[in-house]
Hints:
Elements: H1 4-7, E1 14-19, H2 24-40, E2 45-50, H3 55-60, E3 68-73, E4 76-82, H4 87-96
Helix pairs in contact: 2-4
Amino acid sequence: MAKFSEIIHQEKPVLVDFFAEWCGPCKMMNPILKQVKDVLGDKVSIIKINVDKNQSLALKYQVKGVPTFMVFKEGKQLWRQSGVLQTKELVEIIKRFS
Length: 98
């Protein structure tokens, strides 16, 4: 499995979903993230980070609530937002960084 630091250094946008198993809104995001991937295909990588299993990453990026989304490209954090987002919103945000 690739390291987080390697994954976020891609030339295409990487959407990171910081989530928790016990989080209701996080579960609501699963079909939305699938739709985003269906729309954008290879133009984006989407990875999910379980904050309970990856506490050091959650601390490093100061994730206080879940879900928290971040877009990285070439190792730089370009955007972040917490809470539920709709497919259209996420697609537009990712396209900005493509």
